[in-house]
Amino acid sequence: MERTSKTLAELTPGEIRQLVREKYSEVAEKPRSKYKFRVGSDYALDLGYAGEELRSLPDTVTDAFTGVSAFLARFRELTGGEAILELGCGGGLDTALVAKNVTPSVKVIGLDLSFAMLQRAARSLDAQGNAHVSFNQGLAEEIPLRDHSVDWVISNGIFNLSPEKERILAEIHRVLKPKGHVLCSEIVLNQEPSPEERLNEDDWFK
Q1: 8-204 carries CATH number 3.40.50.150
Q2: What percent of the chain has pLDDT over 70?
């Protein structure tokens, strides 16, 4: 996307999503570069992921990790139903762990707006023989699945990056089956950001 002199407040939702896509595609291609936010296996360890679990995965999965919590890895109740949808699957760390913890009869679907991230995740998980895992490029605000088609929707740090959070919630409601479940980890601020922080792209990506 061509850079303009617009502030974040002046960008359209589509332009903000393009910024997010570009940033996380860069992480997928250069995960060991320095970013305003933490990336990789050391960060995952600090969040609480088990070292043994991380070592069981290819570096291509752990190197590009950008989630905000280890809760999905510790949650062990994703057993019922036929399909689990992960929004913002990124490089596939949580996808891989979820796929290990469910039977092969349960479909695990990873969705991300960055094609580069999806390529990284798909190559890594295909190499491990995860036939019940599939990946789709798309927006959490426009989930490319039919109504009432999944039993679980999970995510690890996507709402903070979306300018249209209400649309994500509406889409989750649409694709969930009756009595389906939602499990989302997210950043929570202890204090209101200043107006300057709200408009600063670097602060927004921290």
Answers
A1: yes
A2: 92
With a cut of 50, say whether residue 106 has pLDDT above it: yes
Per-residue pLDDT band for 204 (boundaries 50, 70, 90) equals: low
Distance CA 21, CA 24 (A): 5
